[in-house]
Amino acid sequence: MGPVVTVVPVREDAHRKQIHLAAHFPGVNHNTVWSDPAARSQVEFDSFVHLAQVAERAKFDFFFLAEGLRLREHLGRIHDLDVVGRPDTFTVLAGLAAVTDRLGLAGTINTTFNEPFEVARQFATLDHLSGGRAAWNMVTSSDAFTGENFRRGGYLAHADRYRRADEFVTVARKFWDGWGDEVAHRGEQFSVRGTAPLPPSPQGHPVLLQAGDSGEGRDFAAAQADAIFTRHGSLESGRAFYADVKRRAADRGRDPDHLKVFPGAAAVLGDTAEEAAENAREIRRSQVSPQTALNFLEQVWGRELQSYDPDGPLPDIEPVFDTQAVKGRVLHADPREIVATYRARAEAGGLSIRELVIELNTRPQFVGTPQQVADEIDTYIQADAADGFILVPHLTPTGLDEFADRVVPLLQERGAFRSEYTGTTLREHLGLPVPQQRSDARQVG
Description:
The chain is built from 15 helices and 14 strands.
């Protein structure tokens, strides 16, 4: 993201699309600037409360919480970024339900290593406790290292992950719909018979989110999700992705407007464009320290690289194939292909190790004055490159304070973002219908 140069038709004010915004708790990753004096705990409840209450004050749609099921290991020790730990998703969101009134509460829960009844009950409980504000980010995993934490262990091949996920959600829906009746299902992945533990929640079902850009991920979202979380940074790629997933939803007989598209993005502000650009450069360098840069390369090379200069060229050695420097991270290509791509990119740009890693890991960003950022966000929405954005701050927990205070009022002034909540449930915030009770809730699949 950055200055928008493509001229596209946008809607007049009378037909202006409404922007949807979500706040992502940054958690344990290289996007968080740990060294900033203002940074606070990643696990204390006060941090979650601060971000959630700022998001609610700014009338955001929902708070988004990622999840990690196992701490990564780097060269035989716990990865530096994981030493703070990872709290349980449902515990945090249930606590936030008590200190917020309207903000949606979205949690990431894995379909590969959990069971449909348990997850259906947990989300139905959260939806009741919060008055209809729960959302489930449905993710899959092909990571055997993570699977070792679970009784079933092991992992699923890439092609099998979404088959399991699709059936998993189908069974969960039957439990959400099955109050007062027997719930039964027999399929390739699950064979269950029981009763729904709770009556329908205030919004019928929790809102379903999905994160995945692959063809299988897009198909899964088109069939099952209410919103899809993506990472398309340019206006052109965003419009192409938006059109593709909306078409896939329509092909399945759905209203395309009932599948919302949410790219993840960061926002960096300054009083001038030049100040914002300098702030963005400093944030990127803080996110990728010299040690972080070397650690990142070790994940691909599969070997210790601490003797290399982070401000020097890429290692001239080849990657190792019989080991993995970081357990808990899946490489989706042959390391030799990845290394070749890195070398070509570094050579073309004259980049050092650290400069390359910064470039590879820079999240799509809105950078500018508050007015410029508001203009660019609105342009993306009105040009059908997104329905909203999940904003990922670089600082925990105060990273969205300035955006809430300086950008949101500008979006409200132009009539593109709500000034007050008009509904009480997350489905109402997003303009999504309440699911009808399914006729197959008590039938054997």
